[in-house]
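User: My collaborator sent over this chain with a note saying "see what the structure looks like." That's all I know about it. Can you take a look?
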Amino acid sequence: MVAELAAGRRPTIIDVAKRAGVSKSLASRALRGDAGVSTSSRDLVLDAAQELGYRPNSAARSLVRGVSGLVGVVLNQLDNQHHTGIVQGVQGRAKELNARVIIGNGAQNPEELQRQIDTMIELRVDGLVIVSSWVPRQVLERAGSEVPTVVLTHLADPPAEVDTIASDDVYGAQLAVEHLIQAGHQRIAYLSRSASATSQARIDGVVLALETAQLPCTILQVDAGEDINLQELSASGVDAVLCNNDLTAAEVIRLAHEQQVQVPGQLAVIGYDNTALARLLYPSLTSIDQPQVNMGRRAVDAIAERTAGRTEALRELYTPQLVVRSSTAQP
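Assistant: Without extra context I'll predict from the sequence alone. Here is the result:
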């Protein structure tokens, strides 16, 4: 049993071989599932490993085989449900390929994002999925030169060393604004708590749609920790607002309830990402849907393609969809 080993010592493959009464090489082959090992010998080794509580040393195995079976995911923030959907897709596809996923939180900080990326590379991951547009370009270049790297967000000027998979944020913002215009809204604002390249692309879409309709454009940038001034927004005549994500939209709806501003009667609200939160709010939130799960799955396949020898950088854009709910209506 485990207690027979020296206190605090983890069982090794040598301990397993000794318990099973076989050679170290045969024990290793049996645990790997290699062909040519008899059923009786395999059973002896597996039983011994279970009795001893043996776990393979993944780090050592990766040094021998040149692969770790690990996919690293670095997120910009953990409390963003858009990121949760991407992780779900990464994990699902990785499992199908017999790989495991480890996650790092960049905490919306470029330095922490870099530290998490460095940690993943030190752990010898087979591929890296980065869900942030805040990573410095030189960090992306270095990461992509060391390990297959996929960035799942909009980048203004992605380096050739990395693949990019994103939703068409310009088109998504246009969809949202055009929906509001068709509903009769005349004073439309874009509200964001982010200064990322993704948010800037959405601003481009907002401006394009409003200029086409010859309507005024209001862009509101609110820093993290700063309160949204809904009274000032309403007093300016704005009757509809597109938010940079569902979380910001939820904040607007909460403030509207507190200040007795009717949604959508006095203020129509649209979110972005179409997370589970959009369906739970009251009124339910109209939002721009991004295929997070599919994007996460595609990222794992892109890593596999790079590993197989693809050298040309991948640039893929998914087309977002408008999901209309109760938070938008004719004013």
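A starting point for your reply to your collaborator: The radius of gyration is 25 Å.
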